[in-house]
Amino acid sequence: MRKLVGGLVFVVGVGGLWYWGGKSYSPDMESQISERAVAAVAAQNGQHPVSITVGGRDISATGTVDSQAELDKLYAVLDNVKGRRVVNLDGIKVLPLRDPYETALSKSAKDAALVAAGSGPSVTKISGLSDMGIQKTDMLELAAGARSDWGDVMKAGQSALAPLDNGRFSLKGNKIELTGQAATPAEEKAALDALAMLPVDMEKVSKIEVLDPGIVDFVMEYDAGQGPVLNGIVPKAVGAKGMEAALGLPMATQKIGTTFAEHPDLTARLAALKGELGSLNRFRLSGSNDKLVLEAEPMPGLDAALVKAQLEKALGERGTVKLAQLGSVPEDGTIRVNVATKLKEIFRAGFWLPYMDFIATQPECTARTVAFLQHQKIQFVPGSDKLDSVSLATINHIAGLLHHCTAGNGMIVVIGGHTDSQGDDNMNYRLSVGRANAVRNALLKRGLQPDRLMAFGYGETQPVADNATPEGRAKNRRTTFVWLNPIQH
User: N or C of the chain: less Cβ packing under 10 Å?
Assistant: First the structure.
């Protein structure tokens, strides 16, 4: 008669005794010995199943045990069975002892199944890994020496590997090592949290590479003649294309990476910066997770403090603006197309001025000057002859026009200063002279020849509107340009 016993198998898996029929010298005696042998083995609560066969009064056992000591104990309990004659344990295999005991779980890709390697302590526990969806458990070596909580440790390993893109969880004695790659710090934390649930007596070592640490780190460099160039790691939600759209200019890219992290209102800041591009010659914008640092080189001739104030407003409270010279000075006569304004420009005397390409005649130069000043008025600080900062861009444009009209053909321009009728006549006259000369001096700085520029003040003597109204007085406060052909000798 043969019976299979063992701690888990006997109590749970078997659910009762099962017998193999066979010849017996004394069926009743054989049955009694068999029952006693099965009960004796079951009482040992071993983790491996043992099969008991009784022939006559001889007991034979097959199966596995963890050690020679366990084998000796099995022999002792069977030897103590009442009525037995011979105990044969030739069919019992003593498992090899592995010290340190090693088992590993590995994962090759985000959604890949785990693969087991190394040793497993019992058929039942190895089967438990299969039930967890772990593959190649049949390749595990059945060996002794595992921790009693080996199954729980493997479950923790499965939990630690679950959030990783790939990785390996290894048990070696009482040491746990977790390696792999995590998409973001959130997945890394989930893996480490699972590792922290392991027993405190275990040594835990982890080395996880975070593929996207959540760091925004980019640099955008801009040159008015070439446009913006982007390099670095940008928020994935915006991307290089989104930044390009916000800035409103085609953008060259170098080495671009993306991150799940975001920068607060990045697109809004770039859209605001778009409105200031016309005042910038170059800039370098550095972005991090919550800051923007702008190193800016204003267009030559503009009020640097005013430009900085406008840039600070555009970048908002998280932005920092520094003014700096960011490149070399080009040679006089260098021509470019400003990507922000779409205007062709020429570099003269340290300034980028509009490049003019028309036949310079007295009527044409007069018409172009008048047309421009209808939309871009030259303004002064109230009550003074100091040019208002906002008018310096207008002066740059006028300088480009005057360069073209005074070059070669010898035309001369008369710059006229005009006031309204408010205040003393003499004071208005002196103010108009001062303002005309202020414009002339600004144009001389931009490379105009002194002998081509004349400045006169007319005070309030040449009104073009009624001084009785604020609107009329505003029209009378103006700067005029009258073109004269050279005197022929």
Answer: C
| CA atoms within 13 Å, Cβ hemisphere of 321 | 22
Q: 426 burial class (0-12, 13-18, 19+ CB within 10 angstroms)?
A: exposed
Distance CA(337)–CA(358), nearest Å, equals 17
- In sequence order, the β-bridge partners of residue 62 are 51, 91
In CATH, the number for domain 217-323 is 3.40.1520.20
Residue type for position 253: T
Angstrom distance (rounded) from CA 224 to CA 303:
18
* CB-based contacts of 76, cutoff 8 Å, min separation 6: none
Per-residue pLDDT at 4? 45
For residue 402, give the nearest of 441, 334, 371, 356 by alpha carbon: 356
In CATH, the architecture of 13-94 is: 2-Layer Sandwich (3.30)
Residue 282: helix, strand or coil by DSSP? strand
User: Alpha-carbon distance 291 to 90, whole Å?
Assistant: 76
List C-alpha distances in Å: 329 to 276, 322, 347. 21, 19, 9
pLDDT, tens only, 253-290: 989 999 999 998 999 999 999 999 999 999 999 999 99
pTM of the model: 0.75
Alpha helices in 345-424 (DSSP H): 362-373, 392-406
Residue 401 C-beta-side C-alpha neighbours within 13 Å: 22
User: Helices 266-274 and 239-247 sit at what angle, rounded to 10 degrees?
Assistant: 30
Q: What are the pLDDT digits (tens) for 388-413?
A: 988 999 999 999 999 999 987 779 99
What fold, for 102-210? hypothetical protein tt1634 (3.40.1520)
102-107 and 115-120 as β-strands: parallel, antiparallel, unpaired?
antiparallel
User: Where do the domains of the chain lie?
Assistant: 13-94, 102-210, 217-323, 356-484
Distance, in Å, from the CA atom of 219 to the CA atom of 293, rounded to the nearest integer, reads 9
CB contact at 8 A, 330 and 304: no
What is the C-alpha to C-alpha distance for residues 312 and 292, in angstroms, rounded to an integer? 10
**102-210 and 217-323: identical CATH topology:** yes
DSSP codes, 198-225: S-TTSEEEEEEEES-----EEEEEEETT
> C-alpha dihedral over 34, 40, 45, 49, to 10 degrees?
-30
Nearest residue to 216 via CA among 156, 159, 261: 261
ω before 199 within 30° of 0 (cis)?
no
Paired sense of beta strands 203-210 and 217-223, if any: unpaired
Which residues on adjacent β-strands are paired with residue 143? none
